[in-house]
């Protein structure tokens, strides 16, 4: 009987505890379960979001393969805008601006292309993207024959990863000005930055032409 009484007392004690704390326990458990599934849903949504942006970007890259085609230009412009409007917090939107600038450059709209690149630069702190964009701007300024501005922009690139591209571009700027010695020095620096065992046929041609001259 003492054991039964003890069990009955335990049951009563549990009922009393449940009346006081049961609702709180249910809320805590529900919140925990809801939070878990909410987190899973958020992760799935994020994965879908990135996947959608990636698919759009791949379509953009394909369309940019031939920008002499007006329809491809329209496709690139449309997708780049969609990436900027709907997926602006992704890297795909940033790089979409590079392709948008290429469309403008293809049509000789260098100022619009530079504006697009500068706008993209202002929205990111990604050092690699900024370096790529600065080099593109410098190339566009060279196209405009604004040699001083092109050189200034190229000099802004300090990331060693892009040293070869930077020096080759500087060489191109000097060549356009007829400064062959300075161009040869820049091309040699570009070749050194690339390193041994890596072929860069166009750069080799530029250097050979200068040596022959």
UniProtKB/TrEMBL annotation:
Gene3D superfamilies: Tetratricopeptide repeat domain. It is a single-pass type II membrane protein. InterPro entries: SecYEG/CpoB_TPR (IPR018704), TPR-like_helical_dom_sf (IPR011990), YfgM (IPR026039). GO terms for cellular component: plasma membrane. The chain crosses the membrane at residues 21-42. GO terms for molecular function: protein-containing complex binding. Coiled coil: none annotated. Residues 15-211 form the Ancillary SecYEG translocon subunit/Cell division coordinator CpoB TPR domain. The keyword Chaperone applies. Keywords: Cell membrane, Chaperone, Membrane, Transmembrane, Transmembrane helix. It is found in: Cell membrane. It holds the Pfam family TPR_21. PANTHER family: ANCILLARY SECYEG TRANSLOCON SUBUNIT, UPF0070 PROTEIN YFGM. Belongs to the YfgM family. This is Ancillary SecYEG translocon subunit. It comes from Marinomonas foliarum. The lineage of its organism: Bacteria, Pseudomonadati, Pseudomonadota, Gammaproteobacteria, Oceanospirillales.
